[in-house]
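ingest -> validate -> predict -> emit
validate: passed (alphabet ok, no gaps, 276 aa)
predict: started
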Amino acid sequence: MSSMTFMRWALVLAASTAAAGCPTPTPFETKPSEEDLTAENLERIQTLEVPNPFKFVALGDTHDDYTALSSAVAAINARDDVEFVVAAGDLTDLGLVSEFEWTHDELARLDVPYLTVIGNHDALNNGARIYRDLYGPLDYSFAVGGVKFIFFNSNTLEFDGEAPSRPWLEQQLADLQGANSAIWVTHQEIAHPDDGVDGDGAAFYGRLLDKYPATSLVIHGHRLPHDFTSHHGTPVLQCGTFQVVFTYNVITVRDGAAIEIEFCDLDGCAPPVAVP
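emit:
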């Protein structure tokens, strides 16, 4: 164990035992106080009367900066035009139940539902088990407002040989459930996934985008900076890490396909940028 990792463990242990009202007395606890939050939030989304156009927020890698996350929640709640929020993984730093619950305590203050994917930090230690208990499946999808949202585990670091579930992902793209387009939400970047020098992850994702061109946007986290690029002609939004840059993204979907993005920080949001 490196000295930096030991210090993080020590800090988390101190916080979990000293914080008033902290739900867990030890970082080694694995049972979260709530369960199946994804199903609960999906049910809320399915009851929404989603307008056309509609807006949602994307953010990622909020671990280790709960103050910034609290600021983001307040800024999102100050708006009245957001339907739901998606978090592109790394809700925690060490995969501890206390970290999951601290993050959920902040995100639960949102006036709208929120959905997540598992990040590589979330799968450390007993994190994968805790994530499944707290949120539910690592891969899931739903259709709303003419868009099929596909949330999937892309963490080759902690799920070597398991992630992504390639047959499942292709099946989801082959059947859009009547939607006009698809939006992917995942953790690792698809152009440079962490699957080693000989890995074919980027090529696999590229083949999917070529075969199923209805994908209008890919949202991911994992990397430090906030960025907006493309892979095989498909727009790719890299949410950025709160420890490095505080930013969240308000995404507008029109007619189930056309997209605009507002890039937001503590000073507010820039004018919307149309996604080609």
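Helices lie at 3-18, 37-46, 66-77, 97-107, 127-134, 166-174, 201-211.
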